[in-house]
Amino acid sequence: MKRGIVMDFYFDSPYISGLFIITVLLIIAWWRIFEKAGEAGWKALIPLYNTYILYKISMGSGWYFILLMIPFVNIAVYILMCMGLARSFGKGIGFTLGLIFLSNIFMLILGYGSSEYLNS
């Protein structure tokens, strides 16, 4: 059976390599964000638990991430998490909008930047 053009694209070596590099950079950024907030960095490696910790850092209680399973409510909860995360690191509304619309880029900025956790 022949693979289609789409399958060839997704299994090409440069595409897979690029995804791998981006994933590693984001894991390191989450690791640094967690360490800045006083959490152990290794928690960024565990799926779902890392989301729990991110919500704990940004909203005070990690259990808000369960609301992500409810349609339409998840959008509001995600926006509130982005607001809380930006506020926790002393950032304003512009950074919040960046986290909402370009989350991977702004997570990298937050992780690799010089901003400090304000514990708010």
TrEMBL record:
Keywords recorded for this protein, A-Z: Membrane, Transmembrane, Transmembrane helix
Segments passing through the bilayer: 15-33, 63-86, 93-113
Any matching Pfam family: DUF5684
InterPro entries: DUF5684 (IPR043739)
Name used for this protein in its record: Signal peptidase I
